[in-house]
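Risk register update: the risk of archive-format incompatibility is retired. Evidence:
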Amino acid sequence: MAVLNQYGRAFKNPLRKNLLTQKVAEPGITSIRDAWAPSVASGLTPARLASILQAAAEGQLHDYLVLAEEMEERDPHYASVLGVRKRKVSSVVPTVTPASDDARDVKIADDVREHLAQHDGFADLVEDMLDALGKGFSQVELLWGRSKDKWWIDEFIYRDPRFFMFDRDTGREVRLIDQEDMVDGVPLAPFKWISHQARLKSGLAGRGGLARLVAFGWMCKSYTTKDWIAFIETYGLPLRLGRYGPSATPEDVEILFRAVANIGTDAAAVLPDNMRIDFEQIANGPGNDIFEKLARWADEQTSKAVLGQTMTSDSGSSQAQANVHNEVRHDVAASDARSVSGTLNRDLVRPYVDLNHGVQARYPKLRIVIEEAEDVDMILKNADRLIGKGLRVKQSELRAKLRFSEPDADDEVMGGAPVKKPTPETEVQHRNQADAPSVDINAAMAELEGDLSSTWEDVLSGVLDPVVALLQSATDYEEAQKMLTESSRKWTTAP
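Archived output:
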């Protein structure tokens, strides 16, 4: 059976199994793929940034990808929030479900779980895939190992996105930059790559990275940080003012000037008795916090872009507000997890199954599921309150909320009703109860009802017979009603 790609079509280039165990995108000094790149962020100006983003929009991604890398390296806040978003997904243990309950499908799923989901490098693989959040796409090379009848993954190798380009016709096909075709690149080898693209917005992957979204704010923050430091250097320290008397000579003034100039670094000076140095504190002005405000504003915009909110990453928010915004972060993480799971099933699970078990009609599913955080304390309080009002609750469900397992019979446990050891008296009582003949409750109730219903006519006949005779003598309803009214005046209550 022919090997097909994720779209059910034949690969553009044939599957070459001998390449699967070789590294095909190694950088080198003499290679077109250079591991080192000159800085783009140093001396960045608005005009230069505009040209970088315009070139990226036209498919020339090199400088944009370098800038995206440097933004993570130079801005602690951007690196922090981007790392939080990545680790929200990479820290989750994946699950693998078989394609069906068939024994063969279950066996394939167990194989995928053991060799892929439990691979030592799986968590790092997910973080490398999520490098696409900042840059728009990421490429991980699969280095396979093999024996006579088995294939496995030796290593997941992250490759710098600068080594890749998109085709010029559609802008959607990722191609490897190589000496074989230095203009258009070469197609990626089948079963050799995990190609993940961040679905942050519709459109081309080269225009979908977070770095493009936050680049302008990052540049503004870079400017304001430099200005802030310059402001602190000039006005952060008190003004050192030297004073000399009218009899001071030019040599005395020179001595005083050197003392004033050096006191900022040496913190010491020697002066004649007729000279002194005063420290004048600069009063707080209306503009001394403008740089901090601009830097904080830029950080808040970055938080919104990366996490979808600001309250769990910035100070000044209440716990209740932060909890609300954590829900937004859950939605973002769940979306990332679905996207990563889809890529893994396409580029990792399917090749692994095809190589080891042959092409299948259906494949197992590897999923990374982000569970929404629950307020366990509130659940327990409500459960305790409702149980006190008669609600019956399964212990297993409450244990699951607390992540507690069911204790075995020989486990040492805490809580619950104490277990009383049987005494000789209770053992005798239990044996007597066990030996006593069982009673059919339903049969006993039926017998009691029969006894009561058999005597009701004899008991009530003295009361009902005169009323029945009176009604039988009446010719219509009005006459019967009149006769009952007149007769009721003569009735008396029994003593």
